[in-house]
């Protein structure tokens, strides 16, 4: 046999085995360092998935949360995005409308996930009839309170009955004395996230049903905006420094430092609060209500890149990860799986976490086509009222005009 | 011409060609794409409706957009304050570490620390220092009786504008300090001695010897700091995101929001082109003025 023939045969044999042994590579970006170490449940699930699907090579990469959406858009436009992306639930509408995410309707309906996932979370991921992401983790907000401060002020509370706004204000005033303030809020973009439930609780809406019209400056909206702002400007139950509370960490530190006695946040706060000070007595009560109950529905979802060449394999992993048997993954990070049967899963034995779970049915969808921009504009409106003393009605009308202009550009 | 002679003749070109190729790839091509995009209605949310040519509409929109002008004025203020702060602090530090004192090597190393810290880390550190409740700045100010209770430095428009400049000056001054320090080493010491013998005082020596010798370095430092500050994004984005109420909104953050919050890449491109043109004019006039004086 000539050398040439031997080389040719070797190449063919090599190519054959390469082809036979080739795996479908599926790439995924996750945030919050969920796959930071081998021991983490997501990595364990990844290993189990690859054992059950030996033809799939699933590669998970940790990405920082800040700027992730922009990174994904850029990578998608450049054609180098990961097959799967872990996103905040509210991003799905914008990313889907841009065309970076694959509509998952067929996969979701054929697998029956539509019956397994919390309806509100599906709604948050839907635009124009298309479901752009599969909700994985859900969270609802509640009122986190300093039990000791409540006891010292002689305030009793119920874990079942939500306080009305007037009752809430009365409690906040009682808790405001010395260096302590009754309530704390996030400023800037975070202000809108905190305010939306007050808007809906007062009978208002953020956007119209089809998302094309701004409704947050309705009479109900203006009333809710004024009430929320006056907690700071008129009643002074919020500390002056709150106008620079940028992150959840700022609120948490203020709470643990005794500067504020109540703040609204989700289940994600419990673990860091306990880690920071295990002896700090906290409790969770329902979000204050007016004509109805409402809280922010957040969480994270899993989307498939529209340009992915391995969409079926990507879905297989999503299907696997959001299965009832994998609920422990979400719980291991102190989070709720976005499943209707999460409460009965037997994983939850923490009464505080159960409190948040009870709020889930009142969760509101605050996703929108220009949701990110709306949050910025509303944050500026709050700042205008809180710092410059602008009339809340003028501020929210201006914000509504700006967001409507942005919506008119795209509808 | 033989092959070797051809290569020898064009050796310079061959050596710089990889650099030129990379610059074309990462600077020229994106600039051209951005320029072309600025004439189209390129909105990611309406891509399904196409990207029609709209001529100069994006530019006329920018010119009549009050937010764009506010960001422009903020950028000028931000750049001038940074250039002034960095040059003055850099010069002061350079003069100090140029003194013949014991342990000066340690000080030289220490002043490099801010420059070595990543921008995001520096910004987050400043945010902690300025924390509205538990920040070091508030603690000191309250203890000294300067303020009655903690103040939200980054929540107030004026104080936010001042603190973002302070943070960036702290972060970037080592560059100008290094440039000036290197230039100071080239000044013959005899000149100072001769001037002193002739009765020149400290200020006189500084203005008549040091500054003229540093002139070229000052031009370099001012030019570089102007360009980098004008284009800077990280510090402000991390510390204030352009807030409160747009008080620290500079062109870089404003354009970013147009692109990634409103997804209007066409309009963002036109703003970027205007920003580049604005910067080019600024640098041209500055260099022209400085070079002109040199000729005179």
Write structural notes for this entry.
The complex is a heterodimer of chains A (411) and B (296). Chain A has 411 residues and is an alpha/beta fold. Chain A contains 18 helices and eleven strands. Chain A has helices at 3-21, 41-52, 68-77, 91-98, 105-111, 113-116, 119-124, 147-152, 165-174, 189-201, 219-233, 248-256, 270-276, 311-321, 327-332, 351-359, 371-388, 392-410; strands at 24-30, 56-62, 84-88, 126-127, 130-131, 134-146, 262-266, 282-285, 295-304, 336-337, 363-364. Chain A is globular, with a radius of gyration of 24 Å. Chain B contains 14 helices and no strands. Chain B is an all-alpha fold. Chain B has helices at 3-9, 11-37, 57-63, 66-97, 104-110, 113-116, 119-129, 136-143, 157-184, 189-197, 202-231, 234-239, 251-260, 265-295. In chain B, helix 4 packs across helix 9 and helix 4 (66-97) packs antiparallel against helix 11 (202-231). The longest helix of chain B has 32 residues, at 66-97. The chains are: A alpha/beta (411), B mainly alpha (296). At the A-B interface, helix 3, helix 4, helix 12, helix 17 and helix 18 of A face loops of B.
Task: Summarize the entry for a quick read.
Chain A is an alpha/beta fold and 411 residues long.
